Amino acid sequence: MRYIVSILVVYWGLAAVYAPLAVAITTEQYDRINALGRLNGVALHCGYLEEMRRMKQALIDNLPKRRELGLAFDRLTNESYLDFIKRAEDCPRESTFASEVKKAIQLLKDSF
Questions:
Q1: Closest Cα to residue 69, out of 21, 28, 101, 3?
Q2: CA-based Rg of the chain, rounded to a whole angstrom?
């Protein structure tokens, strides 16, 4: 566990360094990436692999190829995953979750 926490701390540190470089996108676009990252953390915890695949493919298809954007997505995924565990919530129904993912992907497409 200590090893995982150490990796996450280093990872978030790198994300903090690179995140300011993402100024070429709007706040709305950055928020759309973050929304998908939060959903991806829940999908990771709940084992919704198809939804994870859909979100990652949407990022690949729509985002500029910038490392800091991927780091932002991964940072939010990690934070969301850990927060979901901490809150000890039940996983949402997969069909309901799939609808949320679909909406978030469409918002991402519309903003890029």
A1: 21
A2: 14
